[in-house]
Every structure is written in C-alpha cells, then in structure tokens.
UniProtKB/TrEMBL annotation:
CDD domains membership: AdoMet_MTases
Gene Ontology molecular functions: S-adenosylmethionine-dependent methyltransferase activity
Cited InterPro entries: Methyltransf_11 (IPR013216), Methyltransf_Superfamily (IPR050508), SAM-dependent_MTases_sf (IPR029063)
Superkingdom, natural source: Bacteria
Organism expressing this protein natively: Hymenobacter metallilatus
Parts of the chain that traverse the membrane: none
Name the record gives this protein: Class I SAM-dependent methyltransferase
Length: 263
C-alpha cells in the first residue's frame, strides 16, 4: 500500500472524524495526549513550523496560538478543506496544503521546527517520512512527534478487568508481526451510541513498527534523539475524565523529540 492509497482511506474517514472530534469525543487527544505534548514542547513563538499530517487542524490551531508561523499539510483533501474552513472562521495565519509526509513539497532547510501529532505510525514508510522531515528542517531545528505506543499497540491487544470492572492490565501479542496496511475499524468510544450509529467506523490502515525500528529510523535519518515521554493521566485528570483511567495501566502514546545537528 502506498501513501496515496492510505490517503484515500483517510479522505473517507475525514467527514465523520471531523464531526465527532469537533463535538469533543476524541477524549484521549483533548485531555491527555495533546496537553502532554504541548507542555513538553520547546518555545516556538516567532518560529517557522511545519505540522505534518494536520488532519482537521485542531492541534495546528493550538500551535499557531503559541505564536508560531505555521504551515500544515495532510494527505486527505477533505481534512485540509475542514482545516481551511476553520482558518477562515478564525484566522490564525496558518497555511494549509494537501501533501504527503513521504514527499514534503518544501525546499531544504525551510523550517525551524516540525511537529506531527499521531500521524507517522499511519504512513506506509515512516523512515522516509523522517528523512523528509530532516531535509526540510534548518540545522539545529527539531522534530517533535507523537505516535501510538508501539509496545502496547500490537496486532493482539485485550484489556483485562477485575471483578469490579476496572482495568488492571493489558494483554498484548504479535509485537514482531508487521502489518502491511491491513485496515482496522474503530470509532471514538466516548461518543454516545446514537452518535456512533450515525457514522460508519473509521477504517485505518495499520503499519506497526517496533520500538527499535523507530529509534533506528530516527538515527538513520540523521537526527539526534533528544528526549522521550509517555503521557500518563494524573489523579485529577482521571477524576475529571474517568474514561482516561485505562491509560494509567499502560501508556497509550509515545512522544519523541529529535534534533537536526547544527553543524
């Protein structure tokens, strides 16, 4: 499966995804993953930044509000159209383009930094996407990205619950079994049943790299791996949003920041 074929899947997902996400049902993004990502992000005010795989632009808009001069792209035209509509409603100076992470339509050394929110694990060739990000960054620039945690997002996964129905462990398997774009169906479980019934499940092609492949791809692209974090909900977050409790058992997400050497 190539990136354009993957883009067709996401273009079909985009209308339902945009509707449900903007209604507040992407709770892991809104209340755990994105807050942790931005709390960890270096200062970006006044810098030229690229958002790779921007979707409908939720995180892109947060990035622009931090004072960055943002360009964003996504392979799905329907996502880009939704993001452009939001920009027209509330102008933040964001430029949105249709494009592929595998062939970024920018000159070498165009950006001070790049981000990618939950995108790179969904592209057919993550090492190529990392090389492209490296190419368009200025020396000394950084790439910070989030992905599904490779150790716990595996071909076999099952939540284990105690007698009270509380999650206490996750059963995983097939860690080394690479999936070549087999589509996985799911929808935001926080959405009420009537909302879920109004939309077809998302169909998402799966390309699962193991942890060592991610690290080796970062290094092979020329980056220096600077830091990693695994967001974990606090007691306060779980009290406010009980749905997050499962993400306290094992990490759902992995954040990595890497930097292009100055010399």
């Amino acid at each position: 499966m190539n990136d354009q074929e993957v883009g067709e899947y996401w273009n079909r997902n985009a209308p339902a995804w945009t509707t449900l996400a903007r209604a507040g049902y992407d709770v892991y993004r809104n209340y755990l993953n994105t807050p942790a990502f931005f709390a960890w992000l270096p200062p970006v005010a006044g810098l030229a930044g690229l958002d790779i795989g921007c979707g409908e632009g939720y995180n892109t808009r947060l990035l622009a509000r931090q004072g960055a001069h943002v360009t964003a792209l996504d392979i799905a035209p329907a996502f880009v159209e939704a993001a452009q509509q939001a920009e027209a409603t509330e102008p933040l100076g964001i430029r949105y383009l249709v494009g592929s992470a595998a062939a970024l339509p920018f000159a070498d050394a165009s950006f001070d930094f790049a981000v990618s929110f939950m995108c790179l694990m969904d592209v057919p060739d993550p090492p190529l996407a990392l090389r492209e990000a490296f190419r368009v960054l200025k020396p000394g620039g950084f790439l910070q990205f989030s992905i599904s945690h490779p150790c716990f997002t595996t071909p076999h996964r099952r939540n284990l619950r105690d007698a009270q129905g509380q999650p206490y462990a996750v059963e995983v398997g097939g860690y080394f079994e690479y999936q070549h774009g087999q589509p996985e169906e799911w929808i935001f479980h926080a959405a009420p049943a009537q909302e879920q019934a109004r939309h077809a499940p998302f169909r998402v092609p799966v390309f699962n790299l193991i942890m060592s492949q991610w690290v080796n791809a970062i290094v092979a692209a020329g980056f220096q791996l600077e830091a990693m974090q695994e967001p974990c909900p606090t007691e306060e977050q779980m009290t406010q949003h009980p749905f997050l409790r499962k993400a306290r058992v094992v990490p759902y997400f992995l954040h990595l920041r890497c930097r292009k050497p100055s010399a």
